[in-house]
Amino acid sequence: MERAFVTLCLMTVCCAEALAAASVICFEAKCQFRMELRRETTMSYRTPNGTLMVRMNGTQMQLIDNEFSSGRVGVGAFVDPNDVNSADGLVRDVFTINGKFPGPTFEVLKNAEVEVIVTNKLFTEATAVHFHGLYQAGTIWMDGVPGITQHAIISGQTFTYRFNAQPAGTHWYHSHYFNQRLDGLFGMFIVHEVAPVQPYFVLSVLDWYHVTANHFETTSPFTNNGPGHGFAHDTTRRQSHDGLQLSTVKYVSGLINGRGRNKYPTPLSDFKLVPEEENVFMMCHTGSEYGYEVSIDGHMLTVTAMGEDPIVPTQADFLLVSPGECYEFTVIAQRGSFWMRAKIFQDPRLADVPEVNAIVHTGVHREPQSAERNCTWEYNCTVFNCPFKGYAEEFHRECITIDQVRTKTEVLLQTEATPSVLFLNFGFGIGCSVNARQWVEPEKPMFCNDPLQYTHCPDDCSAVECRCPYTVNLTEGTPAILVLSSVVYHPDKHAAPHPIHLHGQVMEILQAGYPEYNHTTGHHTTPNQDVKCRDEVCSEPYWSAGEFPDFQNQVGPTKDTVVVPAYGYVIVRLRVLNPGYWAMHCHQETHLDEGMRLQVYVEGNIPEIPDPYVYEWLCIEPPAPNGSKFDGTSSNTYEHTPIPTFQPNGLASSSYDTATIVIMTVLIGIVFIFIVIVVRRCRRSDNNLLSFQNDLVNSGEDEELLPNCEASN
Ligand SMILES: [Cu+2]
Hints:
oxidoreductase; about 30% strand; 7 helices; transmembrane helix; disordered C terminus; oxidoreductase activity; mainly beta; about 725 residues; metal-binding; six-stranded mixed beta sheet; globular; binds copper (II) ion; 41 strands
């Protein structure tokens, strides 16, 4: 234990040295952290006399005036690069957490009771923080999804997240308020199984843009907020090895732990490893659009976990990581200085592949001269987590796909219950959608009374465009199998790989299916045939490969974000069904923003919201439309506004079907008969209606609005 403690202290120093965003470590049973969210600017520096801007003078950072003042105190001085959120050197707005971009890394031990006090010091924005990869077992209301599990934290207010640190693994936190995380509202969150004894390093890798999240959205031609033209229309679309377009957004830049390089020699992140020992890296892709192929020159990576449970250690030259995914890998550090490279998945035959770098070294930090891995006939490289079956032969690369990964903790599922099976297709049938249902927020959060009344989606979305809070039901205690696909009705329709993230539980990977590919070009050819679509928009995918597989005696590795291959599928099982309302969505930002999201409702013993009074006003229904005075306490029932349905030609649907007409006719008949009976009984009564009303007025009773013939007798 003493050895562990000494190593731990050393590592704290080591990590603080290595990381732009320092770690905040708490290995107690109870941990309290604070987050202060602010808007700041990259390449700026806070002095006692206000903020000054920073420019690169050679490789040093020097203070300069900002654009609306001059001759300020401190101008001309050189500052420590560790005190500047430099990003890639370009000046733009960012979020900082406790003054840092990205936010600090929080580290705890498994099962710790964690309290995170978030204070919103942004000028005009509300926010909420989601802890990505944490179970939130029994703490659904701490999941940080505004409009679903909480009201957003408005400017000036504080919200405290309380949860248990499970599962152990490499996780992160980020704003779940629309696309806010694009501006830097994120950081890493590590749950250690036990206090670590090996040297370890935490890193985030992300694609980075030179416009803010707002601009990103207001000029995107794809979001359902409304059309625009601009940034997202990339005219030089980058293609993946399998021939698919990588993103509709133009790639600009990338960062490792908040540092990268664009036009200026800004400092890079560096990791000082212990030579000839096993060093652990805990990494998440915290970006938005482009996946990365991560490698370290001169080193093999041994992948040991995919966010949660350990896997059978697997060696690879390259590790592919998509937005939302997390991995742990180890390297035996060689002496010297080496490049860590994160290159986008792009096919290098079409254009140079952009990469973001960090420095891995064992002594003096200097710019490495190391060469990139060379894959040849003699040395075939191994790529971990390919979203396709294989590369073109000329690249000399072998794929390890997700279905080939083996878990280290083989625990068979012990249950008599037959799992429920759900098919979810992530596609573009009506724009980004799931089973041809494009997500819009429910009118009320899920902590209001009878929340499922706000989640209606049409049953049949094959011929109408469904834009609604798509919710699927599961039951606590019954395992569920989800078939996550990215398939199309016609093979010439566009499909894409999607990193699908599920809140509140982990997905156990059971099986995957990929399209065939051309071994010369590397491009996909015949789509996988196991999962098919019944209709043009794939509103109801189904299993077409005979009897659905039985996974009773199978155990798979777990993940909270899994890449569903284009023209293929991944089958996952949910074991520990945590009651609540759990978001499930693509973690590629433009897909998510446009509506590739649904909600998994796990029916069961959902805990009470900790402080309902904070939220009560959100759940109050609007006044009844009959003009009666609304005092805020009435129990008026509120009719849910029907979701407008549209026919494919865009005209509103107005015709009733036959069943509706029959039901309405029967109802009118019943009401008519009821009125006749009431009138006849009232006439028989000794007290007629007039005397009843007189009595009512005289007695001052005003609750009863309808005459009750029985009571007045
Ligand atoms: Cu997607």
